[in-house]
Amino acid sequence: MRKKEKEIIRLLQERYPDAACELIHETPFQLLVSTVLSAQTTDVQVNKVMPPLYEVLPGPEDWLNLSQEEIEERIRTIGLYKSKAKNLYRLVRDLIDRFDGQVPRTMEELITLPGVGRKTANVVLSNAYGVPGIAVDTHVFRLANRIGITDEKDVEKTEQALMKALDKNVWIMAHHLLIFHGRRTCFARNPQCHECTIQDYCKYYKDITRQSKPRRLKKTQATQDLAEEAKELL
Question: Is 137 annotated in the active site?
Answer without folding.
Answer: yes
